[in-house]
Every structure is written in structure tokens, then in C-alpha cells.
Amino acid sequence: MPRPLYREFSAQAEFDAQYNPSAALPDPNAPGQHYVSMATKARTQLRCVLDVPYGPTLEETLDIFPADAPNAPVFVFIHGGYWRALSSKTFSGVALGLQARGITTVVINYALCPRVTIDEIVRQTRAALAWTLRNIQHHGGDPERVAIGGHSAGGHLTAMALQTAWADDYGLPQDPFVAALPFSGLYDIEPLRYSYLQPAIQLDDGIIRRNSPAFSVRPCATPLWITWGGDESTEFARQSLIYHQAWQAAGNRSELHAVPGANHFTVIGGLEDANSPVCNWLCQHLQP
Questions:
Q1: Would you say residue 4 lies in a domain?
Q2: Is residue 57 in a domain?
Q3: Mean local confidence (pLDDT), 117-144
Q4: What is the CATH number of the domain that holds 82?
Q5: How many domains does the chain have?
Q6: What is the mean pLDDT of residues 135-152?
Q7: Per residue in 19-40, pLDDT tens?
Q8: pTM here?
Q9: Looking at residue 1, what is its pLDDT?
Q10: 1 lies in some domain
Q11: 246 vs 178: CA distance, rounded Å
Q12: Domain residues for 141?
């Protein structure tokens, strides 16, 4: 038998079967079409301030969907795409359910691999969050009630944000977020090195070590709901489990449960529905 490359996997096809969620769909284009439709609806129907720069490069922008009432709680969404695809504009639809619940939504953009590394994407994500904490009050948001979350690669970036030295590196409160909600995140990125993604994301030993948050959790006061789609692969379930275990082993608070019947793409659908469990959970944690 071939020698395993990682855990029990010994061939690229095995990694791809676990980490290419589009492959099993009847129509691989359907999720993207849904995202674009909901994004267009959000930008058409909701007040929004688009392409606000948070850093010096063209990709370092964010989109703000203000709540109707002033001093509103805030949710910052970090998009997925395996660090090498999509943009903030694809995911404007996440504001639909949240705005209806009185939550200001911020959707951040970042540069993509292979033009930049995952290290740089993490830096840009942290810069966007720092900008939000310092400036969201000028857009009707309450900087003391900011929650964060993200999908897939955005779940990974959410976890990386939570281990940031916010006080030492940014002069902000050490734990500035009142809640975090990573969907289908990647917390151990080593297996992706052996997948179809490697030519684009170009993982090496250092990038893997610096950017596998399951292995470097710090004590943190932010409560988490770590979730994934109930119909996803066993590897996505494992990724969430090991992060939940590491988070709690550091003395932190987290819940772990999947979204029943959801796949990798529909798992964030609750953000479009004001009455969903996801929106209810965020509202509970964002109360003054």
C-alpha cells in the first residue's frame, strides 16, 4: 500500500474527495448563482456604503450595510473561496437577515492567492477588523458590540483573528469581539497541501505552521459557535471538532453543532433569514 501523506490519506484523489465540495453537487454552478442573486438583492434593497478602503492596496476594501437604528451591533463577515477566489461582492446577501434584526453588517474583501500568500491574507483580515473597531461608529455601529464570522477560508480567517495579539499589536482590547461564528472552517490546513488547491495556495511548512489555528489557540473571552453543514464530508466535520476541542482546552467557551441538511454552500443560508437559528444566536450575543 502507498505510504500515507497525511493521516489515512495517501493519494491526491482522496484529499480532493474530502475538500472539493463542488464535486458532489448536481450543478456546481448553483451555489455561485444563488450567492450572486442574493448579493444583488442586498445591494439593491439595503442601504450600503461600498468599497471603503481599510488599507493601501486596491483589494483592501470593505462594504458596510448599516442598520436603521444608530449605535447598532455589528457583524463582520469574512468570505470564503479557499483564499484564491470570490470577493466581498459575492456575499452581500449575508446582510439580508442581519439588517432585518437591527445588525450592521460589514463584508470584507482581501487579495487572493497566488498573487499573495495566506500570511498576507491574514494580515489584511486583521487590518480590516482593526479598521472596523476604530471606525464603525461613524457608520452607525457600536464598536463595543462587534461579532465576527466567516465561511470556509473565511472560517479559517475568523479563527486566525481570534488568536491575534490585539492589545500588543494594535492597541485595542485584547478580546474585542463579543462572539464569533465560523462556518465550515479550515483549522488544520496541512491536508490541503496534497489537494488540487496547492498550485494556487502554495502551502509550505512555515505557512502551515503559522496558519493552522487548531494548534495555536490562546485563552480568549469570545464565545464561539463552531458549525458546518450536516451533509459535508467527514474532514469538514473533523476540522470543526479539533478546533472546538482546542478552543475548550484553552479554557474558552464554544458550542459545536452542525446545520442539519446543509452542504458546504448552503450552510451560511441562515444569514439571509432573519428568523434563522444563526441570526437568533448572533442577536443573543450582541445584546447590550
A1: no
A2: yes
A3: 98
A4: 3.40.50.1820
A5: 1
A6: 98
A7: 999 998 999 999 999 999 999 9
A8: 0.97
A9: 57
A10: no
A11: 19
A12: 12-286
Q: Which of 1, 27, 26, 4 is nearest to 14 (CA)?
A: 4
Residue 250 counted as domain residue = yes
Q: What is the mean pLDDT of residues 230-257?
A: 98
- Name the residue type at position 67: A
Report pLDDT digits (tens) over 200-228.
Answer: 999 999 999 999 999 999 999 999 999 99
3-state secondary structure the chain: CCCCCECCECCHHHHHHHHCCCCCCCCCCHHHHHHHHHHHHHHHHCCCEEEEECCCCCCCEEEEECCCCCCEEEEEEECCCCCCCCCHHHHHHHHHHHHHCCCEEEEECCCCCCCCCHHHHHHHHHHHHHHHHHHHHHHCEEEEEEEEEEECHHHHHHHHHHCCCHHHHHCCCCCCCCEEEEECCCCCCHHHHHCCCHHHHCCCHHHHHHCCHHHCCCCCCCCEEEECECCCCHHHHHHHHHHHHHHHHCCCCEEECCECCCCCCHHHHHHHCCCCHHHHHHHHHHCC
